[in-house]
Design a protein that fits this description.
This protein has 503 residues and is mainly alpha-helical. The chain has one domain: Serine Threonine Protein Phosphatase 5, Tetratricopeptide repeat, CATH 1.25.40.390. It has 19 helices and six strands. It has a two-stranded antiparallel ribbon with strand order 1-5. Helix 6 runs antiparallel to helix 7 and helix 7 runs antiparallel to helix 8. The longest helix is centred in the first third of the chain and has 22 residues. It is globular and about 60 Å long.
Length: 503
């Protein structure tokens, strides 16, 4: 991407592998290895992508804007987020990090050209599609075709059109699935300690790719005249299937109870000795919108997503971002993010809890929407019920508890009672992805306007009635790649919609 990205990439390779050789992409070093084995690069890539997606501070703006979290009234409130006053420096680290990971994956892809190494190549292609989709969903037009050409001397890559990127990612995922399906008998098996997500199970990788592809296509479902393209693209790999119960993409390199080696979500809030991180647990707290929704519907997951208040552990409550502090709840009357020592089935989890990239219940919610829209076979009800059941199981509850919840007399829970099935599916998906998949929560709202009852920010000085539809390009890009950035045109955080936002 640029010199900063190259430096980060080299560091990632050295830290993420046991290889002691030095790797450079800028010049020929007679003492360096010409190729770092994919089996050493892959675990580093997976670990770092999972760390990025599961570090709360990287995407807390989504949780705060969409009624899921609040900031404790014991702290100075984040004025920029409350007023939607984003800057080019806001969350810019995520942009550069994703391109660093992409460069690592490109190294795997380019270094696995032999037919026997097709499985490594396929995984690299799938993970790069995962990264690029998230980049598009956050920033729109981004570098793509020239993004990973640093070794060829491209240090200032052009920006590609977001719709074009999405369409090419669908093709890349098809190609990756084909590589897996056509792998020769003597294809190199991927050891479990290299593939720290699926332990070399390529059938699951194919389903992961197909589910990611379905996500790309469903995102476009609100666009006029897009149905034919969506249905045609889905049909090409329909036989592969999608991630089902117990098949979610969860990364675990062998998290240890040691600083810097724990689950990244957990480590934001707790130390290795079990004590609280400074400004961790006491900073991010429950959001009023989601807690009210869960209480109104007697959601059995409430006590797993959140803890009761310190004043009364049987009471669950939250604040609204930007709320007048004179009216907001005191810290001891606000729910903390769900935690119970030693139990991973809470939002915060444990030091060794696996970090999700794409859970089984997210997959099932995507499938439920796709079925309801007529894009795939199967029934929306069956898939929706399965999604909510797997969410309950992920939170440590039983299928029996889930079944009782699904039989609720509430139209916002019971599929048969809901007048609008898409609203039901996406609202329950919003609840379920809390603390799990922030970008998808943001994307779902931007493309659908669901949930329809969000408060967002209550700050009277906010710059717009609703939150930004995208982040601004990083200051770093303005500094090092400005000519290509200028070619994109003027960007507004409120009006420069991602291409699939057709409303």
């Amino acid at each position: 991407m640029n010199k900063i990205f190259i430096t980060l990439f080299v560091s990632l390779v050295l830290l993420g592998s046991s290889c002691s050789d030095f790797l450079t992409v800028n010049e020929v070093n007679p003492n360096s290895a010409s190729k770092v084995p994919a089996k050493l690069l892959l675990p580093a890539a997976l670990k770092n992508i999972a760390a990025n997606m599961n570090t709360p501070g990287n995407y807390d703006f989504v949780y705060l804007w969409h009624g899921l979290w609040s900031i404790s009234t014991g702290y100075t409130q984040p004025t920029a987020l409350m007023q939607y006053n984003l800057q080019n420096t806001s969350y810019q680290g995520t942009f550069s990090s994703m391109y660093t990971f992409g460069q690592n994956l490109t190294e795997i892809e380019n270094g696995s050209s032999d037919a026997k190494e097709c499985n490594y190549r396929a995984i690299a292609m799938i993970l790069k599609a995962y990264i690029m989709q998230n980049l598009v969903d956050i920033w729109g037009d981004v570098p793509y075709t020239e993004a990973f050409g640093a070794s060829a001397g491209i240090l200032k890559p052009k920006y590609d059109k977001q719709k074009d990127i999405y369409e090419d990612l669908v093709k890349k995922l098809d190609a990756a699935i084909s590589l897996i399906q056509k792998a020769p008998i003597d294809a190199t098996e991927i050891p479990a300690n290299s593939d720290i997500m699926y332990a070399g199970n390529m059938a699951k990788w194919a389903k992961f790719a197909n589910t990611l592809k379905l996500r790309l296509l469903v995102h476009q479902s609100g666009m006029t005249g897009r149905d034919t393209y969506i249905k045609s693209a889905i049909a090409t790999t329909a036989s592969v299937g999608y991630l089902g119960a117990g098949e979610g993409g969860l990364v675990n390199p062998g998290f240890l109870n040691s600083p810097g080696k724990m689950n990244p979500f957990y480590e934001r809030y707790y130390k290795a000795d079990g004590t609280q991180q400074s400004d961790g647990v006491t900073y991010h707290m429950g959001g009023k919108d989601v807690i009210k929704f869960m209480k109104d519907n007697a959601d059995p997951r409430l006590s797993r997503f959140f803890n009761g208040t310190l004043a009364d552990p049987t009471i669950f409550d939250g604040n609204i971002l930007g709320q007048d502090l004179a009216q907001a709840l005191a810290p001891n009357k606000t729910s903390y993010l769900g935690y119970k020592a030693g139990n991973q089935n809470y939002m915060v989890g444990t030091f060794d809890k696996s970090a999700p990239l794409l859970t089984d219940f997210e997959s099932l919610f995507i499938q439920a929407e796709a079925a309801e829209r007529g894009f795939i076979t199967g029934t929306g009800k069956t898939l929706y019920n399965a999604a909510l059941t797997q969410s309950c199981i992920y939170m440590g509850l039983t299928s029996t508890v889930a079944a009782a919840y699904l039989a609720s007399d509430k139209a916002s829970v019971n599929y048969d009672l809901a007048s609008n099935k898409i609203t039901l599916i996406l609202t329950q998906k919003w609840v379920s992805l809390n603390g799990v998949a922030p970008i998808e929560i943001w994307t779902d709202y931007r493309r659908s306007g669901i949930p329809t009852t969000l408060t967002f920010s209550s700050d009277p000085n906010k710059l717009s009635p609703t939150p930004p539809v995208r982040l601004l390009y990083p200051q770093r890009e303005i500094s090092v790649n400005n000519d290509n950035l200028v070619a994109v045109g003027a960007i507004s955080a409120f009006t420069s919609k991602i291409f699939w936002q057709n409303r």
